[in-house]
UniProtKB/TrEMBL annotation:
Residue ranges constituting the Gfo/Idh/MocA-like oxidoreductase N-terminal domain according to the UniProt record: 8-134
Annotated PANTHER family: BCDNA.GH03377
Annotated stretches, region: Disordered: 222-241
Name of a matching Pfam family: GFO_IDH_MocA
Name of the protein in its database record: Predicted dehydrogenase
Key words, A-Z: Oxidoreductase
InterPro entries linked: Gfo/Idh/MocA-like_OxRdtase_N, Gfo/Idh/MocA_oxidrdct_glycsds, GFO_IDH_MocA-like_dom, NAD(P)-bd_dom_sf
Residue span(s) of domain GFO/IDH/MocA-like oxidoreductase: 143-288
Organism domain of life: Bacteria
Gene Ontology molecular function: any one: nucleotide binding
Species of origin: Tessaracoccus bendigoensis DSM 12906
Length: 396
């Protein structure tokens, strides 16, 4: 029997994403028994007492607390998940780095590129393993397209089109939560959605070196938030409306180091789009396109085929980690499975000492592109993207 190593887990914030992290940790042992790891859910911190207790009851955390320092100082905690709102990421990530705890954090890492750089610098100084929640990388269809690109099946990539359109803020009477406040969220869709798109494009094609962009806020005021927390917060219709401080929509043109050109589009008010997140790559020998709303299939066109045109390909064993979850094509994975793959990469990185999960250095690269795009939206010019530093994983 494989010797198993226990890794004690502390969870910071037990909302929806905290629940996903907890589910993912528990699934790793069953999905990768050969990895030889036992994630041990030790303690959960949340200022809302009921959230912490629900996490303990549902997932088996042994202790609950409202103090994140109690998580970081706990002798049984070896690694931490940071699932708090964006405006708390910097504080919690720096505290984890100071405590010497490897951590898995959601994106964007900070509310600004400066905050993301602070986090990346602290991690580099401490020599820590990290993970950032760029979960779309882990879709089996994406893994298949990446392999086609690496093997040259698509030839020289000439154009990259990426879109992340959703309707989660389409209702004008939705409350102005922290996501619409610049000091708390930073940018709007540039950081919230397009950070995923920038990471995914670079994971597939290589570095982005220059961008220009345009943004717009279509819903300029929203009601003040009333009762509830997280995704359940309601609007206070009796209070005066408050200004929306960041963008609802963004479009970005990009130049890649390889010579490819890219277009990126994102909206949080796109009527009819639920999770319309996708990409299309066009090369000298072929093309491929994928959409998260149909995440278990990919369309591929190779110029040497007898019947020329896009062919629908179902994901199957051999496409990334698909075979760990399902035995054959047509039996698809879910969003939660992508988070399980992410948890596995984080834990495997800790076990081996090799940075396999998307790192805070990758998060800093995405933040740098977001910052350059935001600057371009202000002055209308092309802006250089900062050169990546630290342990990026685009070529892992």
């Amino acid at each position: 029997m494989t010797d198993r190593r226990r890794i004690g887990i502390g969870l910071i914030s037990a909302g929806w994403m905290g629940m996903l992290h907890s589910t993912a940790y528990r699934a790793v042992r069953e999905t990768w028994p050969d990895l030889g790891v036992d994630p041990d859910l030790v303690i959960v911190a949340d200022p809302i007492e009921v959230n912490a207790h629900l996490a303990a009851e549902r997932f088996g955390y042994r202790e609950t607390t409202a103090d994140i320092q109690a998580v970081l100082n706990h002798p049984d905690v070896d690694a931490v998940s940071i699932c708090a709102p964006n405006f708390l990421h910097r504080e919690f990530a720096l505290a984890a780095a100071a405590a010497g705890k490897p951590f898995w954090i959601e994106k964007p890492m900070g509310a600004s590129v400066a905050q993301s750089r602070e986090i990346a610098d602290a991690v580099e100084s401490a020599g820590l393993i990290t993970a950032v929640g760029f979960n779309y990388r882990h879709a089996p269809a994406v893994a298949h397209v990446r392999r086609l690109v690496r093997e040259g099946a698509l030839g020289d990539i000439r154009s990259v089109r990426v879109w992340l359109n959703a309707d989660y803020s389409a209702a004008p009477d939705g409350p102005r939560t922290w996501r619409f406040v610049k000091e708390m969220a930073g940018t709007g869709v540039l950081g919230d959605l397009l950070s995923h798109g920038f990471d995914l494009a670079q994971y597939l094609v290589g570095p982005i070196v220059e961008v220009t962009s345009a943004t717009r806020t279509f819903i300029t005021e929203r009601p003040a938030p009333g009762r509830g927390v997280g995704h359940s917060v309601t609007a206070d219709s009796d209070a005066p409306p408050l200004p929306v401080e960041n963008e609802d929509y963004a479009s970005v043109l990009a130049r890649f180091q390889s010579g490819a050109m890219g277009t990126f589009e994102s909206s949080r008010i796109a009527i009819g789009s639920r999770c319309d997140y996708g990409f299309e790559l066009s090369g000298s020998l072929g093309a491929a396109r994928w959409n998260f709303e149909r995440m278990n299939e990919v369309e591929v066109c190779l110029s040497g085929e007898l019947h020329y045109g896009f062919t629908r390909v179902m994901t199957e064993p051999g496409f990334g980690e698909f075979g760990r979850f399902q035995p054959g094509a047509g039996m698809g994975l879910s969003f939660d499975d992508l988070k399980t793959i992410e948890a596995k990469l984080f834990l495997e990185s800790i076990l081996t000492g090799r940075q396999l999960a998307p790192s805070v250095a990758d998060g800093l690269v995405a933040a740098g592109i977001v910052s350059a795009a935001a600057a371009s939206a202000e002055d209308g010019r092309w802006h250089d993207v900062p050169v990546p530093t630290g342990r990026t994983t685009f070529d892992a």
